Amino acid sequence: MQIGGITSSYPDPMRSASGEILEALAGGKSSKEQASSSASLASVAAATDILEKYDVTDITPSEYSDMVQELFEAGVIDDGDFNQLASVRLELDAAGVEPDESVDLVQFYRRKLEDILRRTDGTAEPPAALKQRLDWVEKFSMIHENPTVQGLNALI
User: Fold this and answer.
1) Which domain holds residue 21?
2) 43-68: average pLDDT
3) Are 80 and 98 in contact (CB under 8 A)?
């Protein structure tokens, strides 16, 4: 069963790097490609385990930092992703969110985008980095809510 539009803003999971895992499980890959896919599968499993513990719709900045560190240490995200995700914590600090104050990161970024559009009467394109951060937290939220759905796991 397909639900139209649920992942319309995301690339096709079967075409993503993690989506290659699904193709590898179906066969047709060389042993080298399957070994790489096995490592990727372990990365997806690690990501799922980590994201099951953290709800980005009800998380403190301290917990968020812990989550990002765990994702990095597990090899789920690389240095560039780590830096981009760490900037979320800087934005929370700049917004005056206390380290132990709960925040809904999805709503936090949706409001930031809405504010930009409102201030510019919808004529300005929001910064790409802001849209990417919203994409990240929406993906994290979806995986947290549905950790056993393989298609969502491939969104990382």
Assistant:
1) 15-53
2) 93
3) no
